Amino acid sequence: MSLKLPGLLLLAILCLTHFAEAQVASQNCFSIGIASSLIVSGEQNATYDIVHAAQVDYSHAIGKKISLLPQLGYALSPYNKNFRLTAFQALVGIEYTFKKVIHSFSVHTGYEYSQESFAFKFDESVVRGTISNPAIVLKGTVSFTLIENLRIQTFIEVVPNLRTSVGLRLAYFISKNKK
Amino acid sequence: MSKHHYSTIILIFLCLQACQKAEIEPLGNFNINALPLTAIAPANNPITEEKIKLGRLLFFDPILSANNKVACASCHSPTKGFTDGLQRSTGFASNVMTTRNSPTILNAAFNGMNHLGEHIPELSPMFYDNRANSLEEQCFGPLLSPAEMMGPEFSAIEYIPFLEEKVFQIKEYRALFKDAFGDSTITIEKVTQALATYERTLITPNSPFDRFARGETNAMTEQQIRGLEAFIDAGCNSCHSGPMFSDYKLHVLGVGEHPGLSLADRGDGQFAFRTTTLRNLSFTGPYMHNGTQETLEEVMVFYENKESEHSQVTDDELAQEFQDLRMRPFDQSRKAEIIAFLEALNDPGFDRSIPDSVPSNLQ
């Protein structure tokens, strides 16, 4: 089975979930998101260009248009069978909400712990190992509201010296109170 | 949040976790490997200590040239990775350059070895155009070249007995040849056998890559490990394969002609040149068969462009493997990774010693 399939299935599940239960997002709310990003430069750009991630955000309003936005994320590069990146991220961000087409703009920073697992088969041996990197993450995100609880977000993520990636994220906002 | 939402979150993480848990498959069949720790010799020229000693002295002795000024080490200096560090070598006449860049003789003993470690010393391609088939045969080339050691005054038929007699006149050599071959007669064949035997000791099998490939995971840096992956991903190993990182085949790359040449160097006749080894590049620049590329960064740009720089070679004539390379011209970090990996092929632990004196007492 292609490893791309789980990602597509997740997208489908999220969309179906949304259309089944359209809700009004409250100001303080959770959101879950799945993201796909393309690594465009950096040392981790050797081969694994596409990284998928799942993230949970909590949006905490601290003003009329400004929210605190802690985020936990887990990412991996599933398509490279020989050299795999996995990363855990804990970020905190600030979001500014507009009224226009761009719904909001947010910046995040925080900590990432990534591991790159590799395996090479030589005549004499199979060499396996892991490269571990703790790092700082900087991320900028622009959000567009598709429909009530669903946003599509474009982001650029910089992990200094390791990678710069650009990506798309689909975020589903879960309000505490149902209509 | 409803149970439904919790289950969605859990489902996402489980899917990602499932992907992560999938076993990393070792990347194999990329046809590159560690060097063996020792070189083997042809049956008719076994390696002996006496022959190594004789070959080393001959290698550094200008007595082998007609004007007593050019030694093998003149173009293959141990201080420069057994090259001369020049674009093209100075040969017999110090004011006339040879046509090509002096290749390193480090690991030449392994030329022809395939990725399975199979190697027939009698069938080892030598020179940029593969015109010789063993180290012994290769040694005849510079000795009998008018541009290198024989000079323009002699023909080969005249020079061989002249050279043999010249060496025979030196008492110390007579003794050394007797120790190495059992009698003190001196022939050019024995000279080449001794030189080839010495060259078989000039090997570098302990580069960080070699140690990594033998299972020493920490031998290469993180950047070099990623560089190995990038090297394979870009398809460099299509030609730079085997333990020598060469397929020993002749390829047309369209490297620009050296501006100092009045006549084009046609390589094998069709502008094809042998894939050179990637080992010890940090000691052996400048690069390409005519030394026209000074740095590895320049070489990388050449491979990224994938265009002929030679006026007599069209892009259509370029080797398919060259055209199929998957480089990323705008990705500087990937380029740095590949160069870092190439640096993992350096092994500075080769014999750099130079004899205090040679039997001829020539300088």
Provide structural commentary.
The complex is a heterodimer of chains A (179) and B (363). Chain A has 179 residues and is mainly beta. Chain A is 9% helix and 63% strand. Chain A contains 1 helix and 9 strands, in the order αβββββββββ. In chain A, strands 1, 2, 3, 4, 5, 6, 7, 8 and 9 form a 9-stranded antiparallel beta sheet that branches. The longest helix of chain B has 19 residues, at 3-21. A two-stranded antiparallel ribbon of chain B has the order 1-2. The model of chain B has no long low-confidence stretch (mean pLDDT 93). At the A-B interface, α1, β1, β2, β4 and β5 of A face α1, α9 and α13 of B.
List the helices and strands and how they pair.
The complex is a heterodimer of chains A (about 180) and B (about 375).
Chain A: H1 4-20, E1 29-41, E2 50-61, E3 66-68, E4 71-76, E5 83-97, E6 102-121, E7 126-147, E8 150-159, E9 163-174
Antiparallel strand pairs in A: 1-2, 1-9, 2-3, 2-4, 3-5, 4-5, 5-6, 6-7, 7-8, 8-9
Chain B: H1 3-21, H2 49-59, H3 72-75, H4 135-143, H5 156-168, H6 171-181, H7 188-199, H8 208-213, H9 222-234, E1 250-252, E2 272-274, H10 281-284, H11 296-305, H12 320-323, H13 332-343
Antiparallel strand pairs in B: 1-2
Quick rundown:
The complex is a heterodimer of chains A (179) and B (363). Chain A is mostly beta strands and 179 residues long.
Brief descriptors of the model:
heterodimer; A: 179 residues; mainly beta; 9-stranded antiparallel β-sheet; 1 helix; 9 strands; 9% helix; elongated; B: 363 residues; mainly alpha; two-stranded antiparallel ribbon; 13 helices
**Helix and strand composition category of chain B:** mainly alpha
Strand count, sense and closure of the main sheet of chain B?
A: 2 strands, antiparallel
Distance between the termini of chain B: 88 Å
Total strand count of chain A, please?
9
* Strands of chain B, count: 2
* Global Rg of chain A: 18 Å
| Helix percent band of chain B | 25-40%
Give the number of helices of chain A: 1
Lateral arrangement of strands in the main beta sheet of chain B: 1-2
Give the SSE order of chain B as H and E letters.
HHHHHHHHHEEHHHH
Helicity level of chain A, as a percent range?
Answer: under 10%
Average pLDDT level of chain B? 93
Q: Largest inter-chain interface? A: A-B, 51 and 47 residues
Distance between the termini of chain A: 40 Å
Relative strand content of chain B: under 5%
Largest sheet of chain A: 9 strands, antiparallel
Query: What oligomeric state do these chains adopt?
Result: heterodimer
The parts of chain B where pLDDT drops under 50 for at least 5 residues are: none
The geometry of chain B reads as globular
